[in-house]
Specification:
The complex is a heterodimer of chains A (234) and B (114).
Chain A lengths: L6 H4 L52 H11 L5 E2 L1 H28 L4 E2 L1 H10 L3 H26 L79
Helix pairs in contact in A: 3-4, 4-5
Chain B lengths: L4 H8 L13 H10 L6 E2 L2 H27 L4 E2 L1 H10 L7 H7 L11
The chains are: A mainly alpha (234), B mainly alpha (114).
Organism (chain A): Hibiscus sabdariffa (roselle)
Protein name (chain A): Transcription factor CBF/NF-Y/archaeal histone domain-containing protein
Family (chain A): Belongs to the NFYB/HAP3 subunit family.
């Protein structure tokens, strides 16, 4: 059975139902299970995967996470067929692509290079997901407030802070802030200390992230609680 | 030291923190966003955060609607057909129509590319 080798074809193939959730592995990666480089429990053809094969699981949200969210909504006794789990997994990816496409078009029209959270929210509103915009806005605002607090914690003793979510220690201020090359900062100045590795640091240009980005984290501690521009989208 | 994982939970996808649980991996979201089009160049750090919550809302809505179909059939197992029915019955999910109609028949057998 041939596995989809390109993104466009993956839609046509169902991924393997192995419990590990793995299917195709890069041709060069270490996989001692068989010479084809497949890890799954279905019978394989003798097809060698092309060297640039993307793992199917990379195209989707991890199924365990999807299932966990589904179970929050379903009654305890509900069962979910494996196919349904995979279908919903695919739907999520499709949703992300759908919204991102619209957000990206807007960026292109406005000649911006970076898709921002505001673009995403705008696209959702435009594509009919208005009901999501408000809770997402709240969520994002809360996230940004946390970020501000986190930044200010770097400069002041933690005990002084009246933060109610239990940040007990400055130790957690260590920069690896997420995935490498993935800057989580949005529209605030100076979230990161200038010494933080900034490889792959994404930031939009003319948007709210003024100040050229990365340094002067201490200087800008107190001025970042303004409501964010995107609230006007609701 | 209290609740060491609060911030790292936010970023790494743990279930903690006042912003609400991040149930979905941000790096994966970013990957999918980039794959959606050749023209996607850069993505702000917050976009995947928004998406993580949005996908949660989306999964919940789709699951709920599918379940409504399931219980009409008096079974307790949510199937792909139920998902397909929910998609077809909801205008908001029009973008999924092709996807579910591919999924419905013989899901384990790959279709030849057109």
């Amino acid at each position: 059975m041939e596995r989809g080798g390109t993104a466009g074809f993956n839609r046509f193939y169902k991924h393997a139902k192995s419990s590990s959730g793995l299917s195709i592995v890069h041709g060069g990666s270490s996989n001692s299970n068989n010479s084809n480089g497949f890890i799954n429990n279905t019978a394989n053809s003798n097809t060698m995967p092309p060297p640039c094969t993307v793992r199917e699981q990379d195209q989707y949200m991890p199924i365990a996470n999807v299932i966990r969210i589904m179970r929050r909504i379903l009654p305890t006794h509900a069962k979910i067929s494996d196919d349904a789990k995979e279908t919903i997994q695919e739907c999520v990816s499709e949703y992300i692509s759908f919204i991102t496409g619209e957000a990206n078009e807007r960026c292109q029209r406005e000649q911006r290079k970076t898709i921002t959270a505001e673009d995403v929210l705008w696209a959702m509103g435009k594509l009919g997901f208005d009901d999501y915009v408000e809770p997402l806005t709240v969520f994002l605002n809360r996230y940004r407030e946390n970020e501000n607090e986190r930044t200010s914690l770097r400069a002041e003793p933690v005990l002084k802070r009246g933060i109610d979510y239990g940040i007990g220690s400055p130790i957690m201020m260590a920069p690896p802030y997420g995935q490498p090359g993935f800057h989580v900062g949005g529209h605030h100045q100076g979230i990161f200390d200038g010494a933080t590795a900034m490889g792959g640091y994404f930031r939009d240009g003319p948007g709210g992230g003024a100040g050229g980005g990365s340094s002067s984290s201490q200087a800008s501690l107190t001025n970042n609680f303004d409501p964010d521009p995107f609230v006007q989208y609701k | 030291m209290r609740q060491a994982g609060t911030y790292s939970g936010i970023v790494w996808g743990g279930i903690s923190g006042k912003t609400g649980p991040h149930l979905l991996p941000l790096a994966r979201i970013k990957k999918i966003m980039k794959k959606s089009s050749e023209e996607v160049k850069m993505i702000s750090g917050e976009s995947p955060i928004v998406f993580s919550k949005a996908c949660e809302l989306f999964i919940k809505e789709l699951t709920q609607r599918s379940w409504m179909v399931t219980i009409k059939g008096k079974t307790r197992t949510l199937s792909t057909e139920d998902v397909a029915s929910a998609v077809l019955a909801t205008d908001l999910f029009d973008f999924l129509v092709n996807l579910v109609s591919e999924s419905a028949p013989a899901p384990l057998h790959p279709k030849p590319p057109n």
